[in-house]
Design brief:
ATPase, Rossmann fold, P-loop_NTPase, DUF3732, alpha+beta, 13% strand, 664 residues, 2 domains, 5-stranded parallel β-sheet
């Protein structure tokens, strides 16, 4: 995004305009304490949509009726403005202005119709930076757990990369603005690939579509075994229904056996509806079926008893194995044994029987040790067999339950006949049961998921290929490598402590962690010692990132390469509150903080820092055709920058007056 800050200013209550004019590249506002330097970054943040009104209390807040920022885009300028402590914001596009004085800024510009609620303002501003998106979910997991969609990108996330406040620029615990809020930190990290132009709305639409198809495919694939089981169950029910029909009616079902009916259930159902029932009261099928089920029940009961006996034996084996190990551990063992050859006291003949017994004992011990080693595995084997027996018992009990249900049905028919129910009535009921079961089987057979499964698999393959074209992982890794490479180049020009040289900083895009790697060990910022190290880590990272923003501006990067640095030299001149003279005096600032003897070294480090800021902008312009904008508010002044003239970068010098000045 080739955008930069042109003006930051205040419209006072009398209609006067107070402003600072900025250019691309390095911009310096220098001055003594309490002149409004730090207000610049707060005014920009407020005009850029901050929920908080944090402009420092003082002359500025007393005089201000409105704060404004003018952003320069290619072909037009965008004016942003806020009234003090107001939840509405102003955004208006105007013609591009090239002068040093914003003469187009006056009270008449800020018409009420251009003020809108803060949320609407952020949405409108987001359109100028192309970050307005409807959805960034790649799947429904976030919505499942929270009940809402993931937060969409906002231009407010840009401020984490653009603003380094006075209390942040050399902080060892925090690197990014607004990262003290966990939710905002996660949003910035998650949306970074969007801000860098790596992923966009079509990418997330495709990702959501892919996840939806994968979910549907998983459901269908999981339903296949259940549907097969339902079909198997329906076939079994038809066989039992046909047997019940034949048992009560005494005749076969429309002249077909169960195998024939199952071979063509639709035709069988048609024939059944067109055929009147016939009853053969002399048929003995009922008795045969009753006897057959009694035999089956007896066989199942016998199998259950055999399985129960086997399970009992396995349980005892498991108990014995456990007891064997426990008892073996409790047996006291001698630490050593002396073996000697015995000799007869009379004839002096020797006997090696003890040695033979000792050898047998060794063999026995080896056998025991081997048994002890395999006993845990034996126990696991027994337990596995016990689980298998439990499964067989469950299936066999289900089989017994089904046979008992058939017996109960046959006995119920007999009982109903005894109560005066007619054979015709019972046969009609049996016929209806056959019809219902056939209809169920037909409906299950008609639902064929395989064509839809094949269609989904082909679509998933196509969408996966489309997503692969975005190459998100590789492109993000390329950005990480780019930032690490730039940090290595930039960091070499800063005065890091000698123990960290050569500086070897790395940055993780998935966590936004920053560390120095030395001898294979990660040394994070909080463990790197002095304030100068922390300052240079911040500067190295942010300069490298803004070079990346410049390099990727033509590849869809939406973050403008604009960086505010507030009081970066405070690590060398911490006594800045005493800076009240007409000129910057490093010696005076060094007094009282024990750095009098290091003023020359400190100034040399500060000069190196400013040179690197200039070099960063110029190299980015040469390499990528985009010049980052760095706005520094500081006390340092009149520095000797060698080939560069310090005054050429100064946009305001507030020594005799401050930001707000009235005509005398």
């Amino acid at each position: 995004m080739k955008c930069f800050v042109k003006f930051v200013g205040v419209l006072d209550k009398d209609g006067g305009v107070h402003h600072v004019h900025f250019l691309r590249g390095l911009n310096i506002i220098t001055g003594k304490s309490s002149t409004g330097k730090s207000a610049i970054i707060e005014i920009f943040d407020y005009c850029f949509g901050s929920e908080d009104y944090t402009v420092p209390e003082g002359e500025i807040t007393k005089a201000a009726s409105l704060y404004f920022t003018v952003l320069g885009f290619e072909g037009f300028d965008l004016v942003l403005a806020r009234r003090p402590d107001d939840k509405h914001a102003f955004v208006r596009e105007v013609e591009s202005w090239t002068g040093d004085e914003p003469i187009f800024i006056d009270a008449s510009l800020f018409q009420d119709g251009y003020f809108r609620p803060l949320k609407d303002f952020k949405d409108e501003l987001g359109r100028y930076f192309s970050v307005k998106m409807d959805s960034v979910d790649e799947d429904d997991s976030y919505k499942t757990y929270t009940g809402r969609r993931s937060p969409t990108p906002s231009v407010r996330s840009f401020t984490s990369f653009m603003l380094q406040h006075q209390n942040l620029i050399a902080n060892k615990h925090a690197v990014f603005y607004r990262f003290d809020e966990k939710e905002k930190r996660e949003q910035v990290i998650n949306h970074f690939k969007i801000f860098m132009g790596v992923s966009n709305q079509p990418y997330f639409v495709l990702s959501q579509r892919l996840e939806e198809m994968n979910q549907e495919l998983r459901k269908l694939e999981l339903s296949l075994p259940r549907r097969d089981e339902e079909k198997k169950k329906a076939r079994s029910q038809i066989e039992h229904a046909l047997e019940a029909y034949e048992a009560i009616s005494g005749s076969a079902f429309v002249g077909m056996d169960a195998q024939g009916v199952l071979a063509n259930p639709e035709q069988s159902l048609q024939r059944l509806t067109e055929t009147t029932i016939s009853i053969d009261a002399n048929n003995s099928d009922f008795d045969k079926q009753r006897q057959d089920r009694d035999v089956r029940r007896s066989k199942i009961l016998a199998d259950l008893r055999e399985m129960a006996k086997k399970k009992s034996a396995l349980q005892k084996s498991v108990e014995f194995s456990a007891a064997f190990v426990t008892n073996a551990d409790a047996i006291p063992l001698p630490g050593s044994a002396d073996i000697a050859v015995s000799a007869c006291p009379f004839c002096q003949s020797t006997e090696n029987h003890i040695e033979h017994e000792a050898n047998m004992l060794v063999e026995a011990i080896e056998w025991l040790n081997n048994e002890l080693r395999i006993s845990p595995y034996m126990r696991e084997t027994f337990e596995a067999e016990e689980r298998e027996i439990d499964n067989q018992l469950r299936l066999k009990r289900d089989e017994l339950k089904a046979v008992q249900a058939e017996i109960d049905e046959l006995d119920r028919q007999t009982a109903e006949l005894a109560r005066g129910r007619s054979l015709t009535e019972l046969t009609i009921r049996a016929k209806t049961r056959v019809e219902a079961t056939l209809e169920l089987l037909i409906s299950l057979s008609k639902v064929d998921s395989q064509p839809r499964i094949n269609e989904l698999r082909n679509s998933i393959k196509d969408v996966t290929a489309e997503l692969a074209k975005f190459d998100v992982k590789q492109r993000m890794d390329d950005i990480r490598v780019f930032i690490d490479k730039e940090m290595k180049e930039i960091g070499a020009n800063f005065d890091f402590e000698e123990s960290y040289l050569p500086i070897n900083l790395h940055f993780a895009l998935d966590t936004f962690d920053l560390w120095h790697e030395q001898d294979g060990k990660k040394i994070f910022l909080r463990s790197m010692g002095s304030g100068a190290n922390w300052l240079y880590c911040h500067l190295t990272l942010f300069l490298a990132m803004h070079r990346a923003f410049a390099a990727y501006s033509d590849k869809g990067c939406k973050i403008p390469p604009v960086l505010f640095l507030d009081q970066p030299t405070q690590v060398y001149f911490p006594n800045y509150l005493s800076d009240s003279g007409e000129e910057f005096d490093a010696e005076e600032l060094a007094q009282g903080v024990g750095r009098e003897g290091r003023v020359d070294d400190d100034l040399e480090s500060v000069v190196k820092m400013y040179k690197e800021l200039i070099r960063c902008c110029e190299l980015a312009s040469e390499r990528y055709g985009v010049t980052p904008q760095i706005i520094v508010t500081d006390h340092a002044d009149h520095l000797d920058l060698g080939n560069w003239n310090f005054d050429s970068f100064v946009r305001a010098r507030w020594r005799s007056h401050g930001f707000i000045q009235f005509d005398s």
